[in-house]
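Internal tracking record. Fields below are filled automatically when a chain is submitted to the structure queue. Please do not edit lines marked as system-generated. If the sequence contains nonstandard residues, flag them in the REMARKS field before resubmitting.
Queue: standard
Priority: normal
Entity type: single polypeptide chain
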Amino acid sequence: MSTPAEPLDQLAVVEIARLLARIRVANGFRTDAGAHVITEENFAEIPDGVTSLEVVDDDEETSYQGVKRRRGTLLATIAVNLPVDIVVDAATRAFARRVLADIRQALADPSEHQFPPGVTGLEIGGRTMQFRDAGSQYFRPQLRVRISFVEKHKEKQT
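SYSTEM-GENERATED OUTPUT FOLLOWS
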């Protein structure tokens, strides 16, 4: 018996993380924000004072066609974790905007996409310039993405 493939929504998040990891000045981006990309699958400690990108698999909207086919939309948030001192100053906000622009650029180039079969679309949504939570050492601007997919379920062979 063969091992089932990873769920399509998980594979889509892994591909988003791979695209984000390309964000380096050497690759033509404005920042090196792709040096530290975090997902639920590869959660790692990030050194203090380092900017990181975090892909959060927030929500999924699906419908089934019969029991063999699932059509859905995965809503994900890409959070930029920017270390800050006391105040989020203009320079930090400007850097955050550059990182968000890099994220859009990294996701927008379809020639770089290696999504698995079944992923039918990627939409880049709006951003939120989140102020930091009380006591947090991070300013977390965010960008929303929507990933459309169709997944076919195989019937068990008896």
